[in-house]
Amino acid sequence: MATLPEPIRLEIFAELARHFDAMRWEEVSSPAATEMYDRLVKDPKIGGRLARFMPTEKIRPWIKDGPAKQYRRALEGVGPMAQMTTREYPGPQSVVRLAMGSGWTLRAQTLDVKPMRCLADGPDSESAFITWGPMSSLQGMVWHACLRRAESESQLITIAVTKPNTAPLPDDDWRLSLSLATILRARCEQITYAVSRKATADSRTV
Q: 0.90 cut: is pTM over it?
């Protein structure tokens, strides 16, 4: 199997970002994602180019476990695809404000991924560990909240379950989230966290 050259890898990432943008990938269901993977493998600009460097059966896992996962982080402004997508989340500082209040700020150099998480500082010299993501990321968020609780009995911990609109989470999902947070002595919030188009240079010019 030949090594995938970096210029070609980046070109394929950019092509995938274009497809993911068009599909609003972060909202795509599992069945729809499966269908999309099949289409991408057959796409000459993606699967066709990758076939020169890997067996056909490895193309789908390469897309699914690499660019498809990185795209979600790219919407947060993290990773190599961040500059390739035309869409973005409001960002970590917005999560901190929505989950903790307007007086809270993201602590520099504490942002991490898989799942998204950070430390934040409050107006009264308080600090908090915050982890956030959609309901599908709850297991990872709870695990990292567990690790944080194991490090500190007194640390303020917030699990923020994100959703793309103002509709509340389904009752069963919310009850589960609250129950797990209670075990950890953590706060749990559900916040509206929607992707929007990036501002263009023209739109920023007044």
A: no
